[in-house]
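S2.1 Query sequence (DNA-directed DNA polymerase)
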Amino acid sequence: MAYTEERAFELVSAAHERGRLGHAFLITGDAVAGGERLAARMIEMVNGGGEDVTSGLDLFGEAPPPEPKSLAELEGDLVSVVRPEMKSRRISVKQMRELERRLHQSSERDKWKIGVVIDADRMGVEAENAFLKTLEEPPDRCLMLLVTSSPERLLPTILSRCVRLPLMTEDAREEYEGERELVEALSRIAKNGLGSVSGALSIKAAFSKLLDKRKSTISKANEAAYKDEVTTYKQTTEGDWLKRREEYYKALTESEYLLERSRYIDILIGWLGDVVRAKVEVETLDYPKQAAVTKAVAETEDLETLLRRMEALEKLRGLLETNVSEQLALEVGFMKAFG
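Output structure tokens follow.
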């Protein structure tokens, strides 16, 4: 599921307070969703903003909340920001090597070394592969933030090593395709409680139906884009360039599908998270329109079981990133999460 900037910051703040903050985050969304601003807030969260709280006092002697600094203001010894080079609009291998070097340098005690990659989809395969080593074996107290509006262009190996924070504006919150249908189907099936085989398989069927629909949409869009390139360049290119473009669009379709599948699992986790919040009487919900259902489910489940169900979905996500049969993994995973 996608989050507003404020909700995403609440989630990472809670993880940081528990000492469970990940070392790499993929922040996605269009320019107005607030990806760079969220990255700046995360940097100030882990390293402190260093604002002078004695300045700017109001008439009552109270300091208003400080405005978050920009990435440009935060950049320095501890914070490295990589952007596409002006001429090529690409992020080079050289830039990523330099970022890795800086991340491996020593830093002040209790301070984090932070690397931010803006428009991360502009890295290209060589730069991404150069960065993989750091993603796989990060230095201590190191935080990497990848910001992009086109995560489908990144290698699956990059995607699998980052905690995903898809962003959307408050106005677009209800517009994510398939989210409303999946949440409504889940609430409808779970209205009588969780724990049945038929219920678990019904949820899995609704999930698969929506996912197949999205896959078909993605495939048609990329097939149309490839046909347009064939029409435009068939008479002007030599060698196997169009063949490579065909392979590119096939890989893009698979990458976009895998990202959508992960987003749909995020939606399920978010819904179960609302059940947990209802159980512990937290009012803030991801899906307030389903509050009556999630509260009813919470009354029939103990907290330990609910947390185990959420864990089963996280394990399912990890299992799906292996070579296991997708349908078998989904069936087993949904039985553990909802059966």
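The radius of gyration is 22 Å. Confidence is low (pLDDT under 50) at residues 50-61.
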